[in-house]
Amino acid sequence: MNRTGRTGRRAALGVIGAMAMMIGSQPVALASEAYPNRPIKMIIPYTPGGSIDTVGRLVAAQLQRQLGQAIVIENRPGASGMIGSEAVAKASADGYTLLFNASSQVYLPLVAKNASYDAIRDFTPIAQVGHVPLIVVANTSLPTSSLRDLVKLAKAKPRTYTWATSGLGTTSHLAEEMIRHAFKLEMDIVSYKGAVPQLNDVMGGHVSAAVSPMPGAYPFVKAGRLKVLAVTSSKRIPQLPAVPTVAESGLPGFELLSWYGLWGPANLPADITRKLSQEVNKAVREASLKARFEELAFETVQSTPEQFKVVIKDEIDKVAGIVKAASIRID
């Protein structure tokens, strides 16, 4: 009798425990299935119209179609991208505030003495989207048709010619510093809040030249408002087959690409991270986007969050060496 009673009580407790586990697991499953159930804010830490903004808006539009929720772009330029990045780092890790940024996201803390975020600790890598070459461009009135010519001009008249950069610590800035350091040029670098004001001042003749990613600069080249002197990829690109690489222009082995990706705040739930990563990979395979990306010389990649983490670590290791060799530092 007692044995039967004890067995009955154990069975009852087992059923209650199983039910509790089922009930307890439901909110997590439902939360996962429901995401996203409201608009997502995507912060781009530069001005509208630049390369990062152009690619980010293309990806956001496709994600919106796939997810069935609005993706609201919020441009937050300033402090070479730190203001927008910091806003995402401080946001709730719920998947409703994301960061679309370029490789400068991980480069800036390497060169900025007072960087307001840690590129690894403060963010969750979601997916690398792709990469693009940069092009060396100049004002159309400058008496030069190649990077070699610009180097000759700058050496003949030190401190006469200038570079414009889209922001300190950006790929644009690093490329200009590397070229300036390698050729021993006395060309000051003027910093702007994004590629649009950077290129506007080159076109206006306020600065001589710039290095800028293809998506933002190429339309001005096609329109005849900028002249292109070189590309930063290891090989010439189909869109500009007659334009030599920086490596061909006197710096053997030179290659620097700007890569773009999507991040969330630190501790973003794994299920949301995976879902977003899968959706980004699906988005960049969309035929209409692929055609547009090809025009911009933007090469997409497929990556998991884990693979993106490896890319970030490798890039930090590589660029840290470049920064040290060229003594690049922002106080």
Description:
This is Tripartite tricarboxylate transporter substrate binding protein. InterPro entries: BUG, Bug_dom1. Residues 1-31 form the signal peptide. This protein has two domains: 38-131 and 258-326, D-Maltodextrin-Binding Protein, domain 2, CATH 3.40.190.150; 133-249, 3-Layer(aba) Sandwich (D-Maltodextrin-Binding Protein, domain 2), CATH 3.40.190.10. Helices cover 46% and strands 18% of the residues. It has helices at residues 2-34, 51-67, 82-89, 104-111, 147-156, 171-183, 195-203, 214-222, 270-284, 287-295, 305-326; strands spanning 40-44, 71-75, 97-102, 123-138, 162-165, 188-191, 209-213, 227-231, 257-265, 299-300. Strands 1, 2, 3, 4, 5, 6, 7, 8, 9 and 10 form a ten-stranded mixed beta sheet that branches. α2 (51-67) crosses α8 (214-222). The protein starts with a helix and ends in a 5-residue tail after the last helix. Residues 1-32 have low confidence and may be disordered.
